[in-house]
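TODO from last week: model Short chain dehydrogenase.
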Amino acid sequence: MPTAMITGASRGLGAAIATALADSHTLFLAGRPSAALDAVAGQFGATTWPIDLADVSGIEAVVEPIVGLDVLVHNAGAAFPARVAESTVDEWRATMEVNVIGAVALTLALLPALRAAHGHVVFVNSGAGINASPGLASYSASKAALRSFADSLRNDEPSLRVTSVHPGRIATEMQEGLVAYEGGSYDPSRFLSPQSVARVVADAVHSPPDAHVHEVIVRPRK
């Protein structure tokens, strides 16, 4: 069975992606050690990989045993709701470290394994990676940078498939925080469900071998 590593799989969209791929892939669930991550892994007989994207120094040693990897899904992310004037340098640094530098470091560490499998790298990006979202200055910038990294990876590694998925707003804990920042009332029915976005990710992963899905944009119907 092919293998798939998913970051940020302890809850929300990451757990939904794990569910969507569990029947077709052996799962490697990457993230900070936690009971929640262990619980998701237990559902699918998956292995957990202790990776902290905010501290890239240990990533290479953790993934060194992986000699072949069919799919890498970059789902983990950080967001600090703030307009430019409200934001801080520390927030920008933390956002970039997780959303960009961490993703780059993990990709580089796994590049030999991905090349060996002619693998597929999926970046869960955001609509903010195409058009900056008000109140999400550092997050929007990080997602734009992540989109450019995905494009560069696709250009530079022709043996790989590289897909950027740009969902609209998803009903997750992160969304609750953003709605609270905006002073609104959180209604999950207004947003995409994690399961719907996970299905889009799985469809890209399951596309025929001769098809290369570069980018997917998905928005709530409401």
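Done. DSSP finds seven helices and seven strands in the chain.
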